Each structure stands twice: as structure tokens, then as C-alpha cells.
Amino acid sequence: MSMSERADVIVLGLGPGGEYVAGALAEAGLDVVGVEAELVGGECPYWACVPSKMMIRAGNALAEALRVPDLAGTADVTADWSKVAGRIREEATDGWNDQVAADRLGAKGVRLVRGTGRLAGLRRVTIGDRTVEARRGVVLATGTRPRIPSVPGLSGTPYWTNREAMAAADLPASMIVLGGGAVGVELAQVFARFRCAVTVLEGQDRLLAQEEPEAGELAAQALRADGVRILTGIRARRIIHDGTAFTVQVGGTDDETLRAERLLVAAGRHADLAALAVETVGLDPTAPAVPTDGRMRTPAEGLWAVGDLTGKGAFTHVSMYQAEIAVRDVLGRSAPDADYRALPRVTFTDPEIGAVGLTERQARAQGLRVRTSVLPLASSTRGWIHGPGGEGFVKVVEDADRGVLVGATSAAPAGGELLYGLSVAVHAEVSVRRLMEMIYAYPTFHRTVGAALGALR
């Protein structure tokens, strides 16, 4: 590549959203340069969604086998982490090699540049000592990185983030997890099911603090059943690593010291806009996210953004949704603006916790007149039949003035799949009255939805 080069579009960051944007624009005939500092495909296939769900599938198989004595006879189960690690290495990540993904992009006509890209003014990007100028514009898709809390002593220790956890060839005997959000609880449960002694530390008063309180309570109940120790409303005050293990001093009513072989930091993620030099196009490098309009345009001319760094939810499905909108806008095709009313999310614990739209608290904060109901899954015939492992609930949140659902939570075995009908209801603003006139198959978990609608108060 020459010292200064031109392209129609430059895509900075080739995670799921950026990879889609680059490939789709190249297939539409544009000259596209894609810039990636790490692996083409981003966090999701190598260190997040895909390997974590492989781990969860394995842990769930162990848990289900252990339910055999209550349901069907006897079972002898021996956990073997090497099966999981092998599947992640060989099937999911190809040993963390992105050649297949890079070749796929190349076949679509994208020119891949490996390195860290930074903005250098409108429609200009530098990668090392090279500059690329974009005739049409630049798409930012650089994602987020783990938020590392400023706990005294943490810096410089061999703590894990999701990356080290996904790549673990062997499991530690014990682990402390800093953070009780989705990543923290998913990995805590998996590791515990493979006989690792896990303690979760969460500064808020409950797990999954962004979701309904009932979801946090269910997650805590499920994790405790798997032997996880949960400490909420408590923070790490100091961290020490002595070469073999971590000691965490925790604050609270009783000062206490926790000790474990590994420490997993799962305290959320953040976008690093300063690293992108967004000030060169007039954006605030200290902002938590890049502001975007309904077409994924930023306030800077010729600059779009998609994915985690837009602050609309750090989910692959949000990134892909935004990527399609950005592609249409770059190509000058009209389309509806982005609409996040029915944003779905799933925490893949066992039971799974699916949620869409607003929580009850969010709906009330928006000034809506709210009616809600919560029904335990066990109140349904299917939930009662399922027995062990069938814990869960359905919660619905109605805007009473309009008579439509604005949010819902489905916690159940396959709760993320149960979410689908609720997502349709919130997205299409189907009236609650109309939903109550539906026929709900018997005996299913989703029949609980019909009962929950009837219980709205």
C-alpha cells in the first residue's frame, strides 16, 4: 500500500457489524478498505458469544444429567473441561486464527489492512505511517473493551477478562468474579458446574442490575444452587496477587478477605473514543459513546458509526441491525430509521433470562402509567411437568394508557426462545386485548404469557 491512498469507504473495526458493512458495500461495487487491529470477526466469534455459548451448552448438559435421579433413574457424570476447550479451539475459533474470515472479506473485494486505525480529520484515516482518504466516508465499528475498575492493587496482576476465560485450556480450582452482570453470571455458573469454587462480587444490591429485580433474584437462586457464593452490595477494596493466588479485601459491614486462584474482571465494557482520535472530526473523545441519528450518521460529515460504540447495547444483534441501516444510508437507499423500542437481550444462564423493551422501572421513569404482572413458570402445566431445572417466570409491562406491552421478561429453560413472541408484541405494538384473544398451545412454557396478560394489574 502506498503512503497515501484513496478508497470509497473505510471501515474501522471488523467485528460483526464492521465486517458486514465492509462486505456489503464491496459487493455493491464500492472500493472498500477494512481496518482491523486484531481478528477479523471481532470479539463475538473468538472471545464472547460463540465460545461462551459452547461452554454454557456443556455446563447445561452436566446439570441436566444431574437431574436424572429426580426424574428417570441414575446417572454417573464426570466433568471434563478438555472437551469444552477442545471444541472452542477447533470448531469455534480455529485456534484464534481469522484466515477464513479474512479470506471471506477478500473474496467480496474488501482490501484488508491490519493495524490500528485512527481518524485524521474528515474522511481520513491513518494506520501507522499510512493514510487512506475516503471519497464517500468512514464507518466506525471498533466496539468496546473491558472496563477495568480502579481497585488498588489490581493493575499489574494477571487478572482475567472474558478473553482469558474463553481461551482457558484448564479450569482453575477457584475463581473470584468482579461483576454480576450477564458475562459475570454466565461464566460463574459454567465454571461452577465444572467444579470450580466461584465467588461473585457485585457492587449493586443484586445481580443483573440492569434487568428486572425478579431476574436478578432468579439468577442468584440458580447460581447458589450450583454452589456459587454471591456477595452483593459489596466492593473490592484492595487486590493482592502473591504469584500463585489472588487475595481480595472486600468492604462491607464485616471486613473480609477472599482468596482464589483466578480473578475474572467482568465489570462491563467501555468505548475508547480517544484512541480513535475523534476530536479530529469535532467529536468529544471523553464521551461514553459516539452519538448517531436514525441512519447511523454521526454529527461529523461523512462519518457513520455502528455497534457497541454507539451506546445502544453491546450486543452482536444490535451491531448487525445498525450495520444494515448504515449500508443502506451509505448507498443512498431510503429505509426506516433505527428503532430500539423492542431491543431484545438474553442472559444465557440456566434458566435463560430473556428480556425485551423497557423494564418496569424504566417505564415508570418515562412517566408511563404502568400495569405489570409476574407469573412463575411452575404455575403453568408445562412448568410443573418439567420439574427440576424448570424454574423461571414471565413478567409483562404494559403502557396502560395505550393498552400495549412496552417490555417483558421471559425466564425459563430456553427463555431466549420464549422471548420471540413477546418481542413481536412489543415491536409491533399489538394490543394486549388482541394478544389475550390468541390461542396459546397447551402444554407449553409460552402459555404462561397468556396467563400473565390476564393477570395484569
Task: Explain what this protein looks like in three dimensions.
With 457 residues, the protein is α/β, with parallel strands linked by helices. The chain is 31% helix and 24% strand. The strands form five sheets. Strands 1, 2, 3, 4, 5, 6 and 16 form a seven-stranded mixed sheet that branches. The chain has a five-stranded antiparallel sheet with strand order 17-18-21-20-19, with helices on both faces. It has a four-stranded parallel sheet with strand order 10-9-8-14, covered by helices on one side. Strand 20 and strand 21 (404-412) form a beta hairpin. Helix 3 crosses helix 8 (182-193). The longest helix has 17 residues, at 49-65.
Summary of the model, kept short:
The chain is an alpha/beta fold and 457 residues long.
Relevant terms:
seven-stranded mixed sheet; 31% helix; 457 residues; alpha/beta
- Give the N-to-C terminal Cα separation: 65 Å
> What's the rounded overall pLDDT mean?
96
| Main sheet record | 7 strands, mixed
Give the low-confidence spans.
Answer: none
Based on secondary structure, the structural category is alpha/beta
- Integer-rounded radius of gyration: 23 Å
Q: What is the tally of helical segments?
A: 15
Shape: globular
Tell me the total number of β-strands.
21
The helix content, as a percent range, equals 25-40%
Approximately what portion of the residues adopt beta-strand conformation? Answer: 15-25%
